[in-house]
Amino acid sequence: MSPTDLPEPSLVLGPIARFDELVDGWFDKLRGTEPTDRIMYALTELGDFGLIWVLLAFARGLRSEEDARAAWRLAAALGVESVIINGVIKSQFKRERPVVQEPRPHKMRIPLTTSFPSGHSSTAMVAGILLTQKSGRPLKTAIFGLGGLVALSRVHVKIHHASDVAGGLAVGIGLGAVARALWPLYRRHS
């Protein structure tokens, strides 16, 4: 094999880039279709600043004082999570977001932070862990299913690479476990 037979360095993809490209290819089959685009863009928008999770917590907070206190605790925990993800972790990685060549079918907020890890994905896991503390399997399945859809919406709308989402899910699970251990939404009654 001569040096001219070797692929250009820019064409050789590492395992993370191959994973991102593979998953992006799966989403290419869904992009540009309705109602998929409308649903995924709506999920992305609802995930901005953890809005969907805070709304769910405060809606549940209407049931009792304990649930209202839990909603405020969730909002505070998500604020801390955002500082850790956007202020600390993303500044260490400085990964570029995906490049979008074609116009987006729906308007959306374009983040100012870098790409890795996905804050929407991390927030979804932290919220899921905290919101389901006193819940049965059906609610846990619904909350984490919704969180997974919010996370996947970030790949669909081409704001994150799939590996950013995977990293955000992993970091969110860790942060959620720490938050639940250090500052549970609900106090145990003896």
Structural commentary:
- With 190 residues, this protein is an all-alpha fold.
- It has one domain (15-94, 110-182): Vanadium-containing Chloroperoxidase, domain 2 (Orthogonal Bundle).
- It is built from 7 helices and no strands.
- Helix 4 (65-93) packs antiparallel against helix 5.
- The chain is globular.
- The N and C termini lie far apart (73 Å).
Fold topology:
Layout: H1 15-28, H2 36-47, H3 51-61, H4 65-93, H5 119-131, H6 137-156, H7 162-182
The main β sheet shows up as: none
Proportion of residues in extended strands: under 5%
- Structural Rg: 19 Å
Number of strands: 0
The helicity comes to: 55-70%
Q: What is the number of independent domains?
A: 1
Q: Based on helices, strands and strand pairing, what is the structural class?
A: mainly alpha
The CATH architecture classification is Orthogonal Bundle
Poorly predicted sequence stretches spanning 5 or more consecutive residues:
none
Mean pLDDT: 90
Order of helices and strands: HHHHHHH
N- and C-termini, Cα separation? 73 Å
Give me the number of helical elements.
7
- The CATH topology is what? Vanadium-containing Chloroperoxidase, domain 2
Overall shape: it is: globular
Question: What distinguishing features does this structure have?
Answer:
Vanadium-containing Chloroperoxidase, domain 2, 0% strand, globular, mainly alpha, 63% helix, 190 residues
